[in-house]
Amino acid sequence: MRRWPKWCCLGAALAAGALAAGCNKPTQAQPAPPADVTVGRPVEHQVVEWDSYSGTLSSPKIANVEARVSGLILEAPFTEGTLVKQGQELYKIDPSPFQADLDSQLANLAKAKSQQALAQANVDRLKLVRGTKAISEQDYETAVATLQQAKASVAAAEAAVKTARLNLGWTTVTAPISGRIGRKLVTVGNLVNGGSGQTTLLTTIVSIDPIYCYVNVPDVEGMRYLKISAEERHDNVADARIACYLQLPGENAAGYPGIIDFVNNQVDTGTGTVEIRGVFANPRGLLTPGMIVLMRIPATAPYKALLIPDAAVNTNQNERYLLIVGPDNVVSEQPVTLGAVFGKLRAITSGLKPGELVVTDGVQFARPGAKVNPHEASFPTDALNAIDLRTTLPPSSRPSRQPVTGPSTAPTALPAASLLPPLPPAFGSEAEPQAQARRGEGRGEGKPGQGPITQGKSSAVHPHPNPLPEGEGARGPLARVEVLAIGGTS
Fold first, then answer.
1. Residue ranges per domain, the chain?
2. Are the CB atoms for 396 and 477 separated by under 8 Å?
């Protein structure tokens, strides 16, 4: 067997080692490209904060239409669920027995009057011969007593005739109040019971114009409304005309203006709330008693706020921050103070400047200190439109308390105009002209901080003034309601 020299074996080993070392040498990693993120600039918009409470509509008047006489129902000339006027005929009970009773009572009255005439003539004759001793004094006194009995019989017969006329009139059942009538609980051909016993309920009527809304608010808010009334020297909170608005289920706008006209006289110790009532005009009858609605009360004057999508806010334990893209496209973490939520947008009260680029999409790829590839996009207009639809009515021009989302800026106000259409008489008192004469511009005393809210706080944006009808103006929490010249987005 042939043997290789030792130096050949050593050279082969060195060559194999060098080859293995060359294969295991690491390659240098290529840097990752900047992540794509979407950024946007904050929108400066005119906003107003609201106190919103869930409440129930209630009718000021509810009438149970019952039979006052017994008999057979002949007619029911009304349509269920429609609006009826006071005095409108609803039911017709068979009047035949009551007409016969009236005729009988009229006959008894005629008989009583004839007996009275005979007794009067007898007394007159006896009076002529009373002094001649032709009759005894007892005969004369008996004749006078008979006359008094005849007069009493006439009075009783007249009362019986009046009762018979009432019973005959009650055979026509009319609406005691104006409002919306319910269903027919008794139909034609049925017997009903009336009188002082167990009467038959025929139908019900509820008044709907105006209509009440009852809500429970924190006791500090109820006290604030009473304080407004007391400072303006009103006898009740209705004269202060504190504005409120009604929003129906399924609607985005609080399109029904009204005033707060009642604050209950005691606080519920179990919940710390007090019941208040708003009254609203309802000429078309669309608001129905029993509906669950949202009553909104302006809590601040309009002010400008920086708005960003609420989804852009990040959380680090108890700290809220935004990811800001600088001029060099480097991401930085910026702590901010949050304000109120306006639809899908959030107000930022401090820590954010107008024009800064905020990361709104792709937050998971944006790391503080890392470079990104920003793509600027404006906020969707539907986000602002959704807020604008929350209400189309201008709130008070002065705040009832300082806004929790930042400093208030004085809006430019046009001359005072009406917020409410002409109100029904139930809205005011007989002394309304005097109340108007002593009504002032209010005191702009704000309340720092914010009390607990029963249903929570909501807010709205007002991009432009709304044309309003003429009439008596309502008042905001501390000032007369005015039409506001409000700017749009900057």
1. 32-60+216-490, 62-94+172-206, 95-170
2. yes
Closest C-alpha to 257, from 62, 466, 409 = 466
**Contact 173/89 with Cβ under 8 angstroms?**
yes
**Is 289:282 a contact under the CB 8 Å cutoff?**
no
Contact 377, 39 (CB under 8 A): yes
Joined together, the tokens standing for residue 237 give 């909170």
- CATH architecture for the domain at 95-170: Orthogonal Bundle (1.10)
CA distance readout (Å), 415 to 397, 419, 462, 473, 486: 11, 12, 18, 12, 14
CATH class (in words) of the domain with range 62-94+172-206: mainly beta
Residue 141: burial class (beta carbons within 10 Å; 0-12, 13-18, 19+):
exposed
Query: What is the distance between the alpha carbons of residues 21 and 18, in angstroms, rounded to a whole number?
Result: 5
Bond into 415 cis (ω within 30)? no
Which of 467, 377, 456 shows the shortest CA–CA distance to 414?
A: 467
Q: CA 191 to CA 202: how far, in whole Å? A: 11
For residue 193, give the amino acid letter.
N
pTM: 0.62
Residues 6+ positions from 275 with CB-CB distance below 8 Å: 214, 215, 216, 263, 264, 268
Tens digit of pLDDT for each residue in 143-195?
999 999 999 999 999 999 999 999 999 999 999 999 999 999 999 999 999 87
